[in-house]
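Record format v2
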Amino acid sequence: MLYSAFNGLVVGIFYALMALGLSLILGLNGVINFAHGTFMALGGYLAFTLEPYIGFWGGLVVAPLLAVVVGLAVERFLIRPLYGRDPLFSLLLTFGLAMIMQDVIRTIWGSIGQPFALPNYLNSPLSSSMFFLTGFRLVVIAITVLVTGALFAVLRYSRIGIRIRAGNADLETISSLGVNIFFLRAANFGIGIFLAGVAGILAAGQLGLSPTIGDSLIMPAFVAIIVGGVGSLMGSVLGGLIIGIASGLTAAFFPVAQEVVIYVIMAVVLVIRPRGLLGQEGLFE
Amino acid sequence: MSSALETRPSSRPAPSIGGREISAAIIWLALLFVPIWLPAIGGFTDLASRVLIYAMAATGLNLLLGYTGGLSFGHAAYFGLGAYGTGLFIIHVIPSMPLALIAGTLLGGIGGILVGPMVMKRKGIYFSMITIAFGQMFYFLAVRWNTVTGGEDGLTGFSRVPLHLAGESIKLGPARFYYVVLALFAAVMLVVWQILRSPMGHAFVATRENTTRLRFLGVAVDKQIWVAFAISAFITALAGSLNAMLTAFASPDDLQWQLSGSFVVICVLGGMRSFWGPFLGAVIYIAAQDYLSSVTQNWMSYIGLIFVLSVLFFPQGLLGFIKGRGRS
Amino acid sequence: MDFVNSASFNRRGLLKAGAAAGVSSLVLPQVTWGASEKPVKIGMIDPRTGVYAPAGHNEIIGATMAVDEINKKGGILGRPVQLLVEDDNSLPGPAVSKAQKLVAEDKVNFLMGTVNSAASESLSQFALQHEMLFVDTGGHADDVTGSKCHWTTFRTCSTTWMLTAGDFKTLFSKFGKKWFFIVPDYAFGHALYKDYMVQLKKAGGEAVGHALAPLGTTDFSSYLIRARAAKPDVLICLQAGDDLVNLLKQAVQFGLDKQIAIAGALQEIEVLQALPKAALLGWWTFEWYWNQPGVPHVADFVTEVKKRSGGKVPTARTWFGYSTAHAIAMAANQAKSLDSLKVVKALEGMELPPEVALQPGKVHYRAEDHQMMANMFPGYVPKDASYPNLFKVADVIPSESIALSPAAAGCKMTYPS
């Protein structure tokens, strides 16, 4: 039971990391980023390619940044023309983009999985009685907490962070106050992609690194946002943890339902509290 | 979030009535003789059946998407429910094609009726997210509920049952099956046409154009969306049922969000504001997919490119684009 | 990753071979075909995209190479052979649509292909309806040559029974009788589990537990924790593809490999290639292996494949594609006909020549259930494994010595009158 809850927590933390990036982009850019999963894969592959030169830790920093470069180009040339238009269009755009990116990744690195290796000291349990505490899982938790903490600090205290939050609340007003909202949106998109890249490397530590690695991870992140409440970053984190733990517990007792349970939770939340656990009143209604 | 939908000019410009009817007549004539001319240009009849099935699904979706303004990204769920309903009915109840089609359509439609209330209050992008997520719920049900659905392997063991008419058993080859699909497609088009001309249809469009004003006028906006959602789920489910008949197979991928995305892009590609838009979109999309996936292993890039280009350059769809040019 | 050969890259194959850009290696046959020779068409449905793409990729390379060789040697009935490859996106639905297309539009004479069981089962049914020969290259579901066997369907890869019987004795005698299973929750996994259990009980062993993990599971930790708590001698992992990669990576992180022997049934180079060094371990069965010292023609085959695949060694999948295409051509030539029934009759019991069999013993399609009888290659992943030396074959077991009889497999073949 305790083990299962802990497993769920690790998975949930991971969902939270995905959801956070998606949620940021959804909030300020108004885009459901279907390509988030492929940006994840991109992060993983870049880290894999760089690993022989700069090691795992170097890759963990550099690969997401490279993914951000791609992300910024995408934002500038594809997504920016769609701001202010029907949200349907940006949705379709990222949907098509996800297909293209997956195909490009397959063309570059091949459809066969790549052997992404972790440093040896991470690849074993801490002790034989605490075997479920593997070095890598602790790293996943630590990095996620670190990144999330840093993100909240930036949003809370830095100028750009405050503007992002303000833009989330009322984009038109801060625009009329002279804030360059195009820059703001680009920066925000970049941060979201950075989180995706980090998530991709962490995923590749445990899963096979293949072009489709993001496919099964992006949907739970959507659900995390809905459960937590659209418009609330804290909610996304909370939502991720909740569905992760629920799914972990279900996997132990009734594995067949380990995915369905996520959606049942979502349906229950939508019926009881339609705006999500921490969602703002009236948003998107 | 102010939606550009509200500022866009209302759908139909004063039509040149003669032209519109002539083009419709040409389309129907061409459809009627597909089994004759399509093989001659290198196609095959089952492909045309698939185009009509996708056109039907997209037309159903478009009632919600284009006319009522509900950005559903989870319509594959109802398509898939239709497919499973049909297959399960043939395997477990009676091998009768008309009844199986009805069973599939009902299953998908009821799915839509149940999901409707949970999504109808949402707007815009949030509506999309919730519909996607519900679609995935049905997907995982299909994948995991092995004993009923055949799980990941899909539902096999049923085939296109012969049609019993007036005591005679008619075996449905590709051409005959095509005519069954065509007849149902025509029926769906007629129904949708009638709905759009009825007060209900006007209420749908009004919902899309200005929800707030409608609310002040005392119209139950949520209910409008629910009704549109349910009708469109029924139509999409019928398409799914026919698809199960076409391939003699129902698979979890009939419920995947990727398929939902395809339906949406078919609507956008052809023109969401045009009655024939989804049909035209389906013709282009299915033909492109069929051709590209045969000639290049990078077909996904090209399909993705269709998404990107149509969004960036033809947001009104091809028909909207043509109409726009005709006007200027 | 380019498809090196144009016969597969461009499905209009021979006719437009020169037009395909960036493709050089289509060696047009020494035999020059008259302009009027209508090609014999083999339709191949295999994944180029989706989760099974790596396996499909190799099957396509093998089949393409075989077709080039067939054309060099005079084709089928003196006509050139054209291989039309269609991508099923690793999904059964598109597999059927593509089959419809190949039959109705391209008028192919034979069908072959598939990696996943779901696709092979639906194509087997489709081929029966169209009375067309279909050779399942790589879909393992028992039904295909068992309870759902059809006169039109043959299969090159092995059954789940053969996969488990291949290494059962070794595992049992080497590691002990307490086994724990992690079973993928779909037909293929259930069948493997059932087959191991039959043998385990008969041998006096015991299953200390099993966990059903859904297909596509990303986090295996709860199953691994249960496995560890059960204290088995052997942990049997029955996953395939990406799932097996995920499972092995995580088993190593939990340190299970240091406490329990890890083993399983089917293992493939495509999976081992995706594993980091730390997770390269275990006892498994291969269906074919490239390193068979002393077996004639194998080394030549490996060299030739490497030329086409950018230096990659052939895998079992490559051999499936290769031997299947050759078998079809040989059967048609032997039957002197393209008629389905006649070719089927010729293929029944037909023995592959050594340069196609590429392994010891008598390699043939069993007449009663159309199941290929080749060899199983049980063995282990050595400590210093690195590509391409990822496996050490411990034994070569003729399939015929371990396969279930056609009756026991549940196949009752009926032919059209």
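The longest helix of chain B spans residues 221-247.
The two ends of chain B are 31 Å apart (CA to CA).
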